[in-house]
From TrEMBL:
Gene3D superfamilies: 1.10.287.130, Histidine kinase-like ATPase, C-terminal domain (3.30.565.10). This is histidine kinase. SUPFAM superfamilies: ATPase domain of HSP90 chaperone/DNA topoisomerase II/histidine kinase, Homodimeric domain of signal transducing histidine kinase. InterPro entries: HATPase_C_sf, HATPase_dom, His_kinase_dom, HisK_dim/P_dom, HisK_dim/P_sf, Sensor_HK_Regulatory, Sig_transdc_His_kin-like_C. PANTHER family: SENSOR HISTIDINE KINASE RCSC (PTHR43711:SF26), TWO-COMPONENT HISTIDINE KINASE (PTHR43711). Its EC number is 2.7.13.3.
Length: 299
């Protein structure tokens, strides 16, 4: 065996120490990554637990109200004034339940990768008016002033169902976080005939810039617990962002504390070759590619 010189021994030891140092640093890096992953898993578990608690209340509360109001209505069928009042309350609770369930089902489809765009020509103005009509009782409750800015008979090629869901969630968010006697603007326009721009502007309390991304996280609300002042379960804007991205679009937020927020989306126009439907005032016509041009199914 060849005898190593003192310099060679020192070099060999230095090389081994350096390898050990690198190995220790790599191990520390991996440990830090594992700690971060574990922290995120714990946060995710906590968020999901909070979500399940919220969603239980968001479903049970309107359902219990509907059952109680219906029972009350059946006991006093002759009082017309009471019947009208109770019926309106049932409608409000049923609307809330339907809205929450729609988002839950859509979120489940997105999670499973089952939601795909079905493009068609959409009458955006009619669709927007139809959505606003559905929220009329909530608008009246807060005494909001509504302004719809939209070109007459604005037609755009996109997925009607997703666009309706997007506008519903943006409008719902704008109403929920608005102040009483405030204003809600639904601004819809086309940019260069190739991009649909929708902005919902409220006059609520606003939001810090650091929270812009947080509001799109699944199950997350800026307020939590039994003392939170706003309803919902933190899925609406998550669903909105996912649907916008499926349509190859983007979401943007601008807020001023104490003044309100503008939550908007931009969606590129789809190719005409992908058209399979035409939507008008909430009615969607599905065309069969194998059938004659004059044949269509209406839903």
């Amino acid at each position: 065996m060849k005898k190593l010189s003192e310099k060679q021994i020192i070099n060999e030891l230095s090389e081994r120490f350096e390898q050990n140092r690198i190995a220790v640093l790599e191990q520390e890096r991996l440990m830090n990554e594992l700690e971060q992953v574990n922290k995120k898993l714990m946060e995710s578990e906590s968020v999901k637990t909070q979500f399940l608690s919220n969603i239980r209340n968001e479903i049970n509360n309107p359902l219990s109200s509907i059952l109680g109001l219906a029972d009350k209505l059946s006991q006093k069928p002759g009082d017309l004034k009471q019947v009208k009042y109770t019926s309106s309350l049932i409608h409000q609770e049923a609307f809330s339940l339907d809205f929450q369930l729609r988002n839950i089902f859509t979120a489940a489809e997105l999670e499973a990768g089952e939601l795909q765009p079905n493009f068609g020509k959409v009458d955006v103005e009619s669709l927007a008016n139809s959505v606003l009509d559905k929220f009329e009782h909530l608008i009246e409750r807060k005494k909001l002033t509504i302004e719809l800015k939209c070109t007459d008979s604005l037609a755009f090629i996109t997925d009607a169902g997703m666009l309706s869901s997007i506008i519903r969630n943006l409008v719902s968010n704008g109403i929920e976080y608005n102040k009483d006697n405030g204003k809600l603007i639904l601004d819809i326009s086309i940019r260069r005939e190739k991009e649909l721009i929708i902005n919902v502007i409220d006059t609520g309390v606003g939001m810090l810039a650091k929270d812009y991304e947080v509001i799109f996280d699944r199950f997350v609300q800026l307020e939590t617990g039994v003392t939170k002042s706003h309803s919902g379960h933190g899925l609406g804007l998550t669903v909105t962002k996912a649907q916008v991205e499926l349509l190859q679009g983007s979401v943007h937020v601008e807020c001023i504390i104490g003044k309100g927020c503008s939550v908007g989306i931009s969606i590129p126009i789809a190719e005409e070759d992908d058209i399979h439907t035409f939507s008008d005032s909430g009615n969607v016509f599905f065309f069969d590619d194998d059938a004659n041009d004059s044949e269509a199914e209406v839903f």
